[in-house]
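Pair request: fold both.
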Amino acid sequence: MHEVFAFFARNSKWLVFAFYLVLSVMLLAGGDPYHRHLYLTSANSVSASVYDVTSNATAYFNLRERNTELNRRNAELQSEVLALREQLLRIDEQQCRDTLVLDSGVAPFRFIVAHVINNSVARPFNYLTINKGEKDGVRPEMGVIDASGVVGIVSVVGSRSARVISLLNPNFRLSCKLKGSDNFGSLVWDGRDPGIALLEELPRHTVYSPGDTVITSGYSAVFPAGLPVGIVMPDNYNDHENFFTLKVRLLSDFTALNNVQVVVSSLSAEASSLEEGEDQDEERAKKAFN
């Protein structure tokens, strides 16, 4: 108690000043409407400033929690987006499978619908990658087509993906012929326009017209016979006295590949076995001749 009295004694002047100051303000604000309005306005301004500072301080200290919550929601949204993409991809593949029309010429074949996940068209040797692999039944040397025509041939197979040699690759040659003709040649890309290829080694007596359809010959177990590949353009090259070359506008748009079908042939294993037998027969014949 002695310390309390000592405090009041030391600060009595300031306490009396504060008392009269508060009293004068109350009398001033209470007696005159203008001063009352001025007092309330000033008080509200001070209160608003205090509240604003308090709110900013609270928001600053809550930033970590808000960032954590935003990151959590962002992760959830990313998962939902990926799930929706997978669902749309399955729907897209199913529609592609349902609209694939087979005729009697492709009876020994079945098709695995795949999605292109990587593709190149501007390189000298182009490849593409699909999202189906060994676990889905894809094997090397299987043909790949889309709704418009031939795309390429499988070269390397992984567990869940496969690499495909694109038709836009000079290393890939496709046996083709003109629709309605038995004369065939080799379709190859010349490394220039991704929409144009060359049909080489056609016999000189082959009759053709610009606008004729180029189709697969069926002289392999990789692609069914009669698949459309391209349209003959007006230009041709007389590069050999017995053969000539046609310029072909490809039907498949390699700059916009999406869904493709991997061609699974029931004849490929048998054809490979027969070809191996032919090689063995040639070796035996050489040994007998020597």
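--- second member of the pair ---
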Amino acid sequence: MKAHSTVLQAYRLMLADDVSTDPSEYTDSKTFYKTYMRYFQGTIDCGNSITSSMKRHLPCYNTNDTVGYKTLNRSGKVAYNWFDDGQFGLQNGSLVLVENYQGRLWISVDINGFNNKPNIWGADLFTFEVLDSGLTAMGSTNTTYKDTDEYCNKDKSSSFNGIACTKKAIDDPDYFKKIVKELKL
């Protein structure tokens, strides 16, 4: 809930300042994150990829990391290009990752930063989509990945498994207790 509130507040501040949230207006896909990052305090700019030479204490996702983020059932690795259009760390240790692809804009939040486990979509990594209606939890009706039976199910093997768990995590106050038990974290 805290991560949702934080990214939503920054998004609303952008709108209040009449700053565009339309992905098509950011012709260089890596420029949106810099604009969005200005609406947070005390950020660490991770750029659009982290090299192995950067210090590991940063909350940033190192695209050279051989493990990376895992899908909800842990059988697959989430493609790094979901997070290659900019990322920044927040004061609370969480990490915001941006993907701007073909007129769609997704904002993911690793609630405890990349250097802290479990690094699993739907366990500590949650994705939102920018729609005309605003910043929307993935798994909601109008989002690209709305089918929670397919995309938030520990028994499925989709390469996007876990992406739609954001809606469940927001709506179910016991979500984290359940996911810890189901995944044996």
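Observation on the second member. The longest strand covers residues 95-101.
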